[in-house]
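Today's session is about reading a structure prediction critically. Students often jump straight to the picture, but the first step is always the sequence itself: look for stretches that repeat, for charged clusters, for runs of hydrophobic residues. Only then move on to the predicted structure, which in these notes is written as discrete structure tokens rather than atom positions. Here is the chain we will use throughout the hour.
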Amino acid sequence: MNPIRCFILDDEPLAISLLTEYTKNIPHLELVGASTSAIEALQVLTVEPIDLLFIDIQMPQLTGLQIMDILGDKTKYIITSAYSEYAIKGYEYQVLDYLLKPISFERFYKSIQKAKDYFHPQALPTPIPKETGDANFLFVKTDGKLIKIFLKDLLFVEGLKDYLCLHLKQEKIIILDTFTELEKRLPATDFMRVHKSYAVRLDQIDTIERNRLFIGNQIIPVGKTYIEQFQRWIKNHQ
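Below is the predicted structure for this chain, in token form.
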């Protein structure tokens, strides 16, 4: 099966970095190039055969809709945008999918499966690879930016109503997210929910005392709902 040749066009370098890392984890994707400039991208896309273009909508030189007007059916599109209002308009261009930022790897993978079904309709589905893989990092959105954090630096996560505070070795970052969504992105072998308001990186625990644990000077309670699972983990590591 020939790989799907793709190109990324987005005026946000961090968005390009994230999608580039995602493409590396999917073997049937071949990333031909990426650009933050619509003009530069057009120079490539008008001469280079591309199967699939990941395209942002709001860009300073030309919008994604204008670029799709120019390229027409030369390629297929997956729109990547922070704004949902372009979804209906985007589908007039027969896009394969519409990804709303911030984009999780799971959602990206599902989108690529749609593309794979389109380009290789007889191909069998392949198992989903782990997001973290060799990269062992994730991007989180805060203050309108996507920030890369390495999982080895994440000590624990604290819930703050509608927000989460990521306690890193050198700093704290507050993000608008839920434990449910974040836990999907954290490797279960390294992180565990120990309280309704806390999830911890297990290899960073210094001391355990009854129903609480210590990471540095931070005291973290272990909730009744989570104590049995936590005690099983302790038993396996004694």
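Discussion point for the tutorial: The longest strand covers residues 29-35.
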